[in-house]
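Pasting as-is:
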Amino acid sequence: MPAEISAPLTHRRVLSLVTPIILMGLTTPLLGFVDTAVIGQLGDASLIGAVAVGALIFTFLFWAFGFLRMGTTGLTAQALGANDPVEIRAALGRALLIAGIAGGLLLLLQIPLQYVAFQLVQGSQTVEQEATTYFGIRMWSAPFTLANYAVLGWLVGMQQTRLALVLQIFLNGSNAALDALFVMHFDFGVTGIAIGTVIAEIATAFFGVGIALFLLRKYAGKWNWPTIVVWDKVSATIAVNRDIMIRTLVLLLAFSFFTMEGARAGDLTLAANAILMQFVSFSAFFLDGFAFGAEALVGAAIGAPHRDRFMEAVCLTSLWAVALSVVLTVAFLGLGGYWIDFLTTSTEVRETARLYLPWAAALPLISVACFQLDGIFIGATHAREMRNAAFVSTAGFFLFWWLLLPLGNHGLWAALALFNVLRAFALGRYFPRLMSTLQKT
């Protein structure tokens, strides 16, 4: 039994695993922030807009491939729990192979993708021209960005979250330095921002693979191409990633509709909802940390298999997640008004946001169960159940919204809250079946 399983699972160990993940999540927005801050020094609004539009397009484009991170974490954690060095290597190899193929396809399809993207995200002629330049350069980072997702998922599955944080810091730091060099020193403008980001992604991919190879030195065996491409394992990996991708896109429908429906209610409501969604995003960074921890610990317990360790992982990560959600809800209720005032100077928007603040403040406590269950089922690689639960909960969201239409924006927020409750119930009903697959150890 590997040390990661035999060592006692304590509160301290859970926190040491989760804290780097939370810090990593908090650094994620820095990539777009740095790009905007550097180009903003040139004082040209159209350049700022071009970078913002380009970054937005790639955020959504690459976000669709987030399954590479999630699927790799669960599969790697199970291989670690089973003390299977061959499969530990193969899990990384398959993830990098999928990243390379998917990244290559994005490069081949960049012209139609660019056309669709700019039909959806409209801007002035100057902004669109500069954003097109950004898009054409940034697209070359696709295979390396997806490889970074794969390596990140593998590191989390290996319970090496501190190294995952180091990788994220390296990405953000090199991106900031290169942006400053190409824009402030060489005056490359938007082109410099795109080139800097591409080089940073490439360097991080090589750095990440180097870290992985170093970690693998303590595991017996060598790279084995036939093992990596064996069809049973490849098809299982594709199935897990496919179902996670479908689940993610289905959930995106609900969140996208929430934004669009707020827009239909008028600019004031749209602005207030946008500010309050910052509360939701902020809390997600923290709750995701414990969900990621659950992925790694649950996956290792299932790989062992070790039913008692599985329950310890579920209980300890969930206990801390619930405690943190209570703290976030209380903090948002008590200090949310100050945050709203910091984010906007508009008196009308401030008043409107305060009106709906209780909904945003309650969401961490309401949503903690669905976050944790996502982590548990990702670790178990039970992606089909996640996909099915996403269909049920998203259908429920639209039903709740329709029933609560008379309540206006309050009804929209209530539908979002009930959506997260239903996500937990829809996935939780599969939990006994998951438990039954584990032997008592």
